[in-house]
Write a structure and sequence with these properties.
This protein is of the alpha+beta class and 559 residues long. The chain is 58% helix and 10% strand.
C-alpha cells in the first residue's frame, strides 16, 4: 500500500488535486439541495471547500494558486462570450430603464460597503468579501481577490475575503426573496393581472414572417418581371414560388408575370398586405401543399469564407434558383434583406429544387458537426488577448497609481467584444452552448474549491466569533438596503410591473435561485426577460465595482 502513501504525500500535487475534486463533487451535490425551494447553487462548492479546509490538511500552495487563477480565467472568459451578444442590445429602449435601476442596486451596495470600510466597521478585505457574498456574486469575489493581489494586500487578505463572502452569502439569497414578498404585500399587488400585462408587453418586437398566396389579377403587371413589382423591394417580402397552369416552380426576379399566376410570398404582415393590394387578391390555395419538385429546407451557415458577407453578394443562390425566405438567429426568426450579413450559426430557410438546394448547402456549410464542435484556436487566442488586456496599466484620475483589469476584468471585456465581432476571417469566436456551459462550470468550480480549501481552517472560528456576527449584520444591510430602495422607487416612480420588478431585482443580484422563486410565485417566465435584460451590465458592474473599491480605499484603509 506504499503507493497510496506516496500518492497522498504531504503537499503533493496528487493530494491537492484529489481534495479539489472532492470539494467540487461534494459542493455541486450540496448546491442542488433545496430548502423551501431555495438552493446554494454553485456556492455549495465554496462551503464544501471550507469544510474540507477546516481539517487543516496540507495542500500544495503553488498548485492551489494556479488552479484558482486558471479557473477564474475560464469562468470569466466563457461568461463574457455568453453575455456579450445581448450586452449592447440591453442598453436600448425599455432595457435602458431596467438597467438604470439595476445599476443603482449595484452602486448602492458598493456605497454601503465603502461606508463600512471608511468608518472602520470592517477591514478592506472583509468589506470586499461582504460585498460579493451579500450580492451572491461570485465573479466579484474573484475580481476582488485579483485587486487585493495587485495592491499587495498579503496572503491573509484573500483568506479573510473568502470567509466574509461565505458568512454573508446565505442572507444574500434570502434577502432578495424577502424583498419581493415585502413589495408585493406593501403595494397589495394582483400578481395574476400584472403577469398577464407583462407577458403581453414582452411579445417579440420583431414581427415573425407570415406566408400568403396571391393570384395575379392586375393587368398592369402582365409581362413585368416579378422583381419589379411596385413596392416589393424594401418591403421585407420574399416571393419564393409561383404556379402557372398548375405547375409549381421557384420564383425568380426575372420571372415575367401573367394573369392567373399564383405567388407564394413570405414576410411581415404589413408588407404582405401591400403586395396583395398591388397584385390582386388572395388565391385561396397554398402552393406549399401542391405536389412538385420545389421544396424547402433549413441550412446552417458554417463555412468561414461567407461569414460577414451580404446575401446580395452571394451568387450561389441565384445561380441555383434557390430563394432565402427566412433567417433564424439567436432564436428570433425574421425576413432577410439584400444587405443582411451572414454569421456563423445562422439558420436559413431556403426554397428550391432539392438537387439545387444540395449545391447551396455545400456552399454555406450546413454542418451540424461544425456548429457543435468547439474551436480551440480562437478559444485560446481569446484567452491570450484577455490576459494581455488585463495586464495593461490604466491611469484613472484620483488614484495614486495605475490599475489593471486583471485576470477577472481583462478576459471578460475581451470576450464581450469578440462575441460582438462574431468572427475574424476564419477565426470564429462563437462557442457551442454546451461547451461554454461545461467550461464555465469547471472554471468556477475550481476557483471556489481553491478559495474554500485555503480559507476553511478559520471559518468556524470566525463564524462563531464576534466577527462572524458583525459581518452577518453588515452583509444583511448591503443586501437589503439597495433592494428595498430600488424596489420601492421603481414601483412608485415608474409603475414597474411586478413580474418585471422581480426579474430586475433577481438580475441585479445575478441570483438564479431568486429568479427561480420569482418564476414559481408568478407562474410565468416574464421575470426571466427582465433578468436577462439587466444581467450583462450588472455582471460587468459587479466585477469592476469590487476592483474599484479596493483601488480607491486600499491606501485610505491603511494598506
Amino acid at each position: 500500500m506504499g503507493w497510496i502513501q506516496e500518492l497522498f504525500a504531504q503537499d503533493s500535487v496528487a493530494r491537492t488535486v484529489v481534495l479539489l475534486g472532492l470539494a467540487g463533487a461534494a459542493g455541486t451535490a450540496l448546491g442542488k439541495i433545496r430548502v423551501l425551494g431555495v438552493s446554494l447553487g454553485i456556492a455549495g462548492v465554496l462551503f464544501a471547500g471550507l469544510a474540507i479546509g477546516y481539517f487543516k490538511l496540507s495542500i500544495n500552495a503553488h498548485v492551489l494558486e494556479f488552479v484558482r487563477e486558471f479557473g477564474l480565467i475560464l469562468f470569466v472568459y466563457t461568461l463574457g462570450l455568453q453575455i456579450g451578444p445581448g450586452f449592447f442590445g440591453s442598453l436600448r429602449a425599455r432595457g435602458l430603464v431596467l438597467n438604470a435601476f439595476a445599476a443603482t442596486v449595484v452602486l448602492l451596495g458598493a456605497g454601503v460597503t465603502v461606508i463600512w470600510i471608511t468608518f472602520g466597521f470592517v477591514e478592506l478585505p472583509a468589506g470586499i468579501g461582504l460585498l460579493s457574498g451579500a450580492t451572491t456574486n461570485t465573479p466579484s469575489l474573484a475580481a476582488g481577490q485579483q485587486a487585493l493581489e495587485q495592491v499587495q494586500a498579503g496572503e491573509s487578505a484573500a483568506v479573510i475575503q473568502g470567509l466574509a463572502y461565505a458568512v454573508a452569502y446565505p442572507f444574500g439569497i434570502i434577502g432578495i426573496i424577502l424583498t419581493m414578498l415585502l413589495v408585493r404585500s406593501a403595494f397589495r399587488i394582483d400578481v395574476k393581472a400584472e403577469v398577464a400585462e407583462a407577458e403581453s408587453s414582452q411579445q417579440p418586437r420583431v414581427p415573425q414572417p407570415k406566408t400568403r398566396n396571391f393570384e395575379v389579377r392586375n393587368a398592369n403587371l402582365i409581362g413585368r418581371p416579378l422583381g419589379k413589382i411596385p413596392g416589393l423591394e424594401g418591403s421585407g417580402v420574399v416571393v419564393s414560388r409561383f404556379s402557372r397552369e398548375g405547375k409549381v416552380d421557384v420564383a425568380r426576379p426575372e420571372t415575367l408575370l401573367r394573369l392567373g399566376d399564383i405567388l407564394h410570398a413570405v414576410g411581415p404582415e404589413e408588407g404582405l398586405e401591400g403586395l396583395r393590394i398591388v397584385v390582386g387578391s388572395d388565391a385561396g390555395v397554398d402552393l406549399k401543399s401542391l405536389p412538385g419538385a420545389v421544396t424547402n429546407r433549413r441550412l446552417i451557415v458554417t463555412r468561414s469564407d461567407i461569414y460577414g458577407r451580404q446575401l446580395a453578394d452571394l451568387d450561389v443562390f441565384a445561380h441555383h434558383n434557390v430563394v432565402v425566405t427566412r433567417v433564424t438567429r439567436g432564436g428570433i426568426e425574421f425576413s432577410p434583406t439584400a444587405g443582411f450579413r451572414l454569421q456563423f450559426g445562422d439558420v436559413l430557410m431556403v426554397v428550391g429544387e432539392s438537387p439545387q438546394i444540395d449545391h447551396v448547402a455545400a456552399a454555406v456549410g450546413n454542418s451540424n458537426k461544425a456548429l457543435n464542435s468547439p474551436q480551440p484556436i480562437p478559444f485560446f487566442a481569446g484567452i491570450v488577448l484577455g490576459v494581455l488586456a488585463g495586464s495593461i496599466p490604466l491611469m484613472i484620475p484620483g488614484l495614486p497609481a495605475a490599475v489593471k483589469l486583471g485576470l477577472a476584468g481583462g478576459p471578460l471585456v475581451v470576450a464581450i467584444l469578440l462575441s460582438r465581432v462574431a468572427n475574424t476571417g476564419p477565426l470564429v469566436w462563437h462557442m457551442p452552448t454546451n461547451a461554454n456551459l461545461m467550461l464555465r462550470e469547471v472554471g468556477i468550480t475550481l476557483f471556489l474549491a481553491a478559495v474554500g480549501l485555503r480559507s476553511g481552517e478559520k471559518f468556524v472560528e470566525v463564524l462563531l466569533g464576534a466577527d462572524g456576527l458583525r459581518w452577518l449584520a453588515y452583509g444583511a444591510v448591503i443586501t437589503a438596503l439597495p433592494l428595498l430602495v430600488v424596489g420601492i422607487s421603481a414601483r412608485i416612480l415608474k409603475k414597474l410591473n411586478y413580474a418585471e420588478l422581480c426579474g430586475l431585482l433577481a438580475g441585479s443580484m445575478t441570483d438564479p435561485p431568486a429568479l427561480a422563486f420569482a418564476q414559481e410565485t408568478t407562474g410565468s417566465d416574464a421575470p426571466a426577460v427582465a433578468y436577462a435584460t439587466v444581467y450583462p451590465l450588472v455582471m460587468l458592474l459587479r466585477v469592476f465595482s469590487a476592483q474599484l473599491v479596493v483601488f480607491l480605499l486600499y491606501r485610505a484603509a491603511g494598506g
